[in-house]
Amino acid sequence: MWSGRHVVLGVSGGIACYKSCILARRLTEAGARVDVVLTRAAAEFVRPLTFEALTGRPVVTSLWDRDGALAHIRLGHDADLVIVAPATAHLIARMAQGMADDFLTSLLLARTAPVLLAPAMNDEMFAAEPTVTNLSVLRSRGVEVVGPEVGALAEGPSERPGRMSEPETVMAHAARLLRRGGPLDGRRVVVTAGPTRESIDPVRVVTNRSSGRMGFRIAEAAWERGADVVLISGPSALPAPTGVTLQRIETTAELEAAVRDALVSAAVLVMAAAPADYRPATASAGKIARTAGAVTLPLEPTSDILAATADVRPPGAVIVGFALETGDAEAKGRAKLARKDLDLIVVNDALEPGAGFEIETNRVTILAREGDVIEVPLQDKRGVADAILDAVEGRLG
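User: That's the sequence. What structure does it adopt?
Assistant: Structure tokens below.
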């Protein structure tokens, strides 16, 4: 995503400048070429040498200190993206008025690349009418804004927006901005993730080892590609991905109901969840005491969600299933692909080292309705998510 990208990181003067150091580092580590432009006030919070050490590139602080009089024009035209983080009330006001009285505002006026602002300021300043008006003006000109968020400010706790978004959130919004216009842009994608739980009694459940990581990474990647993403997840300790609408469920029946509701308006359904295949035929109303001795637990099958929701699939929607198998995984996946009338199925072997549940990596085979086979080598689950979405995008009209 970031390899070979040229990003200008504009930094205006506020205490949130420390987050800009992290952002510069993260972008550089991801493979971007990062040119940092500091306002005079920003250089009072963080010295230029810090950013130079983090990016390996010279830092611009003045119209007079880089490559001649037209440097701001060249840099503004060469960049793939301009991020301003933090964007103070003062900087936002100067942008809205079209001022060009330093390198950063001159570059912003001359740039041809998209711009992403990450405002950061006192909550009263952010709520003030001039700031609200200035941001409205900038949005009307195509400038994207991320945050600010509610949280501790320099002067203490606050229950209103003002705190700059975290670097990882800014990067996610920046990636989405760069990928605008792709096949998933503006389409609704429904992703399921994690296990389900079926009650034995008020304390114990039938479940499985799924952590939800694969589904969460797919939702994250789909949102960065411009999709409107609904993530339906069973119990998982993972935080909600940036920008994604997260709906928590517990049982397989709840998962089925949530998929049925969300699928009606979806262009894509990715069933990465691992719902329990069986549930106790009868759940005990009270905790089963250990002193009762051996327990026989009659089980009954749960609903097949892909089959049960087939009647609400929108015409042309891309339906993706998963098959986690043990032994002869590809043949079993091919049979499931046909039986459940899927466009794609993602197959992996639960016994293969480095793949499956509760780990950060995966290796899968993607089977298509027409017979095509895509082998995705062992890698982190975000890379696998991108490979799956590449296959999905190839089927979208």
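The chain is about 35% helix and 25% strand.
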